Write a sequence for this structure.
C-alpha cells in the first residue's frame, strides 16, 4: 500500500456551526478514531487531500496533527448531495497488530479464453473488501482470467491471497465472460461443422 503525507490542524470548536465556518475557509473537518486513545478532531485543506480522495489507489495516510504523528486509513468520506463537495472525512488509526477491513481495487490479468472465442469480459466487482494488517494489504487484488470460458465466472469464494482474508460474500460475482452474438455464431458454426 502506498503512503500519503498529510498535515492537519487540531480544532477545538465542534458542531454544525463551527464546521460550516471551516468549510467556508476551504477547510474540511475531520475525525481520527484512535485504537486506544480518544478521538482527535482536526481540519485539512481541500487542496491537501485532492490527490488522496480523487484517486483509484488506496493509501496509508501518515498524519501529522500538531505534535502527534500516526498512521491511518480513510474510513468514510461524506459528500454534499448536490455539489459533491467534501463535507467530512473520518480516519481510522492503524497499528501493526490489529487487522483492519479495507476496500481495495480489483484488476484482471491475462486474456480470457472466452474473450478469444468472441465473449465479453465483465468486471462485476470494482472493489473488494479484505481484512489484514495494514502493511499486508495490497494496492490492488489481481485476478487471473486466462482460463475463463464463455458463460463462466469467478466468485469471491474462489479467490485467495497471501496474508489477507476476503470479507465479501463468497457468492459475490467478481468477473465473468458474457456471451455475445459473435460467440453464439462461432459456437453454432462449430456445431454445424461437427
Amino acid at each position: 500500500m502506498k503512503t500519503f503525507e498529510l498535515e492537519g490542524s487540531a480544532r477545538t470548536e465542534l458542531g454544525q456551526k463551527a464546521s460550516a465556518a471551516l468549510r467556508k475557509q476551504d477547510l474540511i473537518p475531520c475525525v481520527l478514531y484512535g485504537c486506544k486513545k480518544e478521538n482527535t478532531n482536526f481540519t485539512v485543506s481541500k487542496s491537501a487531500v485532492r490527490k488522496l480522495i480523487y484517486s483509484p489507489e488506496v493509501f496509508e495516510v501518515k498524519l501529522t496533527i500538531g505534535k502527534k504523528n500516526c498512521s491511518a486509513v480513510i474510513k468514510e468520506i461524506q459528500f454534499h448531495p448536490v455539489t459533491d463537495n467534501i463535507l467530512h472525512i473520518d480516519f481510522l488509526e492503524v497499528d501493526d497488530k490489529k487487522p483492519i477491513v479495507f476496500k481495495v481495487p480489483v484488476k484482471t490479468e491475462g486474456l480470457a479464453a472466452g474473450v478469444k472465442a468472441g465473449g465479453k469480459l465483465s468486471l462485476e466487482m470494482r472493489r473488494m473488501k479484505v481484512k489484514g494488517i495494514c502493511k499486508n494489504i495490497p494496492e490492488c487484488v489481481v485476478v487471473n482470467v486466462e482460463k475463463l470460458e464463455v458463460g463462466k465466472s469467478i466468485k469471491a469464494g474462489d479467490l485467495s491471497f497471501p496474508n489477507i482474508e476476503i470479507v465479501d460474500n463468497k457468492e459475490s460475482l467478481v468477473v465473468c465472460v458474457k456471451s455475445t452474438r459473435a460467440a453464439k455464431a462461432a459456437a453454432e458454426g462449430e456445431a454445424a461443422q461437427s
Q: What stands out?
A: The first strand starts at residue 2 and ends at 10. Helices lie at 16-24, 46-53, 113-116, 181-193. The chain has a mean pLDDT of 82.
